[in-house]
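Researcher: Quick one. two chains, 728 residues in total.
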Amino acid sequence: MILLGLLIVPLASGPLAFLLRKRRMMEAVNVTAFAILLGLAAVLVAQVLRRGPVSVLNGFFYADALSGLVVLLSAFAALACSVYAVGYFRHEERSGVLQEAEKTGGRFAIGKLREYYTLMPLLVFAMILVVLANNLGILWVAVEGTTLASVFLVMFYGRETSLEAAWKYAIIGGVGLSLALFGTILVYYSAYGALGTDTLAGLNWSVLAGKAAQFDKPTMRLAFILILLGYGTKAGIAPMHTWKPDAYSEAPIPGAAMLATGVLNCALYGLVRFYILSSKCLGAQFGSHLLILFGLLSIGVAVPFILVQKNFRRLLAYSSIDHSGIMVLALGFGGPLGMLGMLLHMTFHSITKPLLFFCAGNVQQELKTDLFRKTKGGLIHSMPLTGAAFLMVTLAVTGSPPFSFFQSEFTILRAGFSAGYFALAVIFTGFLVTIFSGFLVHIANLVLGEDPGLSRTKMCGWKKYSVVVLAAMIVIMGFWIPAPLFRLIQHAADIVMGGP
Amino acid sequence: MPFVPNPELGNRIITLMAALVLVLQIAGVGQRWIVSSIRIFAVQSFLLGGIAAVIGYFNQASHIYIAALLTIVLKAGVLPRLLERLVERIGIRREIEPLINVPLSILIAGGLTLLGYVVAESFYHPEETSARAALGHNTLAVAISLFLIGFFVMVNRRKALTQVLGLLSLENGLFLAAISLTYGMPLVVELGIFFDVLVAVMVLGILVFRIREAFDSMDVSKLRKLRE
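Model:
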């Protein structure tokens, strides 16, 4: 029942917002729906921890610890983004950006707000469906659904550049996902001998996982490569990452934060599900080498672009390419440490990344630019809270202690050494250090420095509290992870290792 | 005595139709008129629906009929109609400007077909002499060729709408692979995929329209503001 609830809440709240006429009502529906969603996700996690996998409708929807973790993270990111969105869009409306996008001639821009508050729940619905669908075909359909819902978010502002970004996103995403569909068909084909295909269950992950050892091996090999390319495109792994900086810098901030956390998690989730099948069928070695290659390549690609970046929204996108590379690399290093490292990283990433986007959004709304050269530095004087949070979250995402990314990246590094990839682990460390220094220099130049004499700005409560609460959580997570959450992550890591 | 269809006959019909689909795909590569590209796509989809129906008939797999019907209605009927209306609204007939000239493009398409056969070869297990394996072998080769040529079309064309057509023909290749390898995915999955394709075309259509409005052209090579 709870699985259905998780799907119905976002699915119902999108159309509901579409029917409403008042801004306040839409905001209330949006925030309430995502708060309920987070509550339901917590209940689901509690159930999974207590009683093991949950399923309904003859196993059509299925949730184990891995799905539970990803649902929880998605719901959390959705709630954080929806709270911030209230303040963000009110500010956009006051400064006339929305009216310009909607071409209302300066009047109230309800149409754009309705577009956002309708599309966002639908995007979240697709994300939850990705995670709860047991059938790998439905999983694909839902991932494609996330693309379709988010294309409109990317072209939200209707500028020429937004159209360009949306086009790239739709076409690259479409081609990438067609590769993933081909991979899914081939997995089905390779399972044909072991299962027969008459029933719906022929594509159910929980069924496939039990018999993966008997699959046709050559077909499975090709299938995994296609899946890696396909879902890798969606996760923004190099060299299929080119849509990411454009899409992230054109979408409205809450939408971009959602793409960078929820949608990224979904793509990686799809990849992990197939990785489990492939390592049961072909042994872990086959997938590992490919994953390490693509992971390290993504981190490497991000390095020069972070160093010379002129635009702080695009900087965030390259940071996201870097982080998805780290997670893929962790999966490739493998072993219990690698899996644990990957899932820890995913958890910290889903909590930290929204704050990074929110800070960038606050700065962009205040200075009306996202180019470094048009800023004068010294933001800490005019925006003390945002400035401090921006600096702190920059330290956090670049993996400096005491923040939690340090733990996950250290775990991944240990996984690399214990799996015997000494040279690669050293290269990985080198990349991380370079990214740390490049990123920090950019943000320190923006935030610190002499007071340029801008007037102190007042932030509305919605924006302020979303920043404060997330910042507090990041600090706390650096020292303490709630025991049930850690147990959940450990269970999920066992599943990725091929356990029950 | 119940009528048992002769699988050999079914195989021949399917192989013939698959060959036609491939010929149409290659013909599409050489097209200069956007409307005829759309019509070629419609006929190709119609044939694919036919292949699905034949496979369903000879293997007594009734759920494939639904997929066949949907293919014919949606991909041979609704989508081409939508695209043609879009072309009318934009008011441009002759839109295709390939990067590589037509004869060379067709040669490349031929090469990709060959590649498709080589890849499909690796799935062929001669020890499984069942009719199914033989059938899968030929149509899989065609499916992979469709997929590769679809890719090539997308890279080769600069106009937004023709890229969409490339994506659709690539999807046709996937459909052929799905029905010939496994007699179709489970029905819900097929339904989901059809729904996605339909929505994707609408989304892309809206995008094409807005790009055309904003840039006064559908040439995607003009989309080059976002650079490092």
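The mean pLDDT of chain B is 81.
Researcher: Thanks, that's what I needed.
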